[in-house]
Design a protein that fits this description.
Blueprint: E1 7-9, E2 12-15, E3 21-24, E4 28-30, E5 38-45, E6 50-51, E7 57-65, E8 71-76, E9 84-85, E10 88-91, E11 100-107, E12 112-114, E13 118-122
Parallel strand pairs: 6-13
Antiparallel strand pairs: 1-4, 2-3, 5-7, 7-10, 8-9, 8-11, 11-12, 11-13
Protein name: FCRL1 protein
Pfam families: Ig_3
Domain Ig-like: 36-121
């Protein structure tokens, strides 16, 4: 369903009994609502968020519910600017200063949902 599917609907059919004729049901109103993003979660590859110095880490953000279009942004605690957009973030050549808590934010334009933080440790 899309938001533009809201409206009044009825069912029409040919009724063939003693007198054949078209028959129409009562009209019903259907309202399609947006579902805000819910259930935002993170996963990491390698699992657990522990990575060796100089290696790469891939983070994925998933949304259990929400109607689109959805936008994604990635954040590290203590860092102001977003690290990336999209449901996937690849961190390459990690250094000591890349350890910390990472989070994904998902927005539908009206509301925002955040994942729990994921602790990334560069060993």
């Amino acid at each position: 369903l899309q938001l533009n599917h809201s409206g009044r609907y009825c069912c029409k059919g040919w009724v063939s009994n003693v007198v054949s004729r078209w028959s129409e049901s009562k009209r019903v109103t259907v309202t399609v609502h947006r579902v805000p993003p819910l259930g935002v979660s993170l996963s990491a590859q390698p699992p657990g968020g522990q990575v060796a110095l100089g290696d790469s880490l891939v983070l994925r953000c998933t949304v259990a519910m929400g109607t689109g279009p959805l936008s994604f942004s990635w954040h590290r605690e203590g860092s102001g600017a977003p690290l990336g957009t999209g449901p996937r973030l690849e961190l390459r050549h990690l250094g000591d200063n890349d350890s910390g808590q990472y989070r994904c934010r998902v927005s539908d334009g009206d509301s925002v949902a955040k994942s729990d933080p994921l602790n990334v440790t560069v060993l």
